[in-house]
Amino acid sequence: MKKTALVSGASRGIGKSTALAFASAGYNLVITSLNSRDMLEDTRCEIQKMGMECHTYLGDMGSEENVTALFEELKYAGININVLVNNAGISHFGLLQDMTMEEWNRVLSTNLTSAFLLSKYVLPDMIRNKKGKIVNISSVWGASGASYEVAYSASKGGLNSFTRSLAKELAPSNIQVNAIACGIIDTDMNRHLSTEERREIEDEIPAGRSGSASEVADMVLKVVESPEYLTGQIITLSGGWY
Fold first, then answer.
1. Catalytic residue among 57, 148, 152, 229
2. Is residue 11 situated within a structural domain?
C-alpha cells in the first residue's frame, strides 16, 4: 500500500513544494490551508496529475475543532497518516510593544499549537503501528532570535523544544520526530523585505543567496527517508548563515 503524508499549509511556498516532492516519491497526500481554497486546489490538481491521491481540507490547524473535523473525514475515508509535516506558519514583523494580544495569539496558534494538535491526532495510529515520521518546519530564529520578530522567534524556539521532547517520548514507539530550521527562503513570508534588505542579508550568507522552497522540500523528504535512528534533531538549512 502507498504511504500517505499530511502537509499543513500546502497551498504555496514550502508546503506546496513539500507536497509535490512527496507525490513525486510515490506518496498519497492530505494537504491543508487556512483560507487559500483556489491555491490548495491547484496543488491538489498537480498531485493528481502525478497519479497520486490527494485529500484537501480548508481550515485553521490551530483550532482543535478543525483538526477534529479533518481527522473525522480521514477516518471516514479510511486514510491513515504515515508522515506528518507541520509546515503551517505565519510571521509578524514589528516592535513587541506595538503587538496586540490577538496578533501574538495568532502567531503562536498557527506556528506552535497547530503542530501540537496535528501531532496529537496522528499519534494513535502511529503508536499502534509502531511506525511514523513527524517533521516540523522551524527557523534559525528559533535558536538565535530575530529583532522585530519576537513572536515568530518564540514560536519557532518552542517548536524546537517540542521536537526534541516529543522525539524522546516517541522513540520507544519507533516514531521519529525531527525539525528543519530554515534560513532565508524565497517565499511569500519574506516578501516584506525590500530589495536592498534582501541583498544585505544575502551578502551575509556564505552561500550568497536565499534558499528555495524546493530545497527545503528535498530536505524534508531526505529526513523522512533517513535511518530510523535519526530523531530529536534540529537540522539547519541556511546556506551556512546560522
1. 152
2. yes
Q: Is 27 a catalytic residue?
A: no
Q: What is the pLDDT of residues 168-225, one digit of tens each?
A: 999 999 999 999 999 999 988 787 778 888 899 999 999 999 999 999 999 999 999 9
Question: By the 8 A CB rule, do 71 and 81 touch?
Answer: no
CATH of the domain at 125: 3.40.50.720
Per-residue pLDDT tens over the stretch 85-95? 999 999 999 99
CA distances from 218 to 42, 111, 174 (A): 20, 21, 23
Note down the domain range covering 169: 4-237
Q: Is 76 exposed, middle or buried (0-12, 13-18, 19+ CB in 10 A)?
A: exposed
Task: Give me the number of domains the chain comprises.
Answer: 1
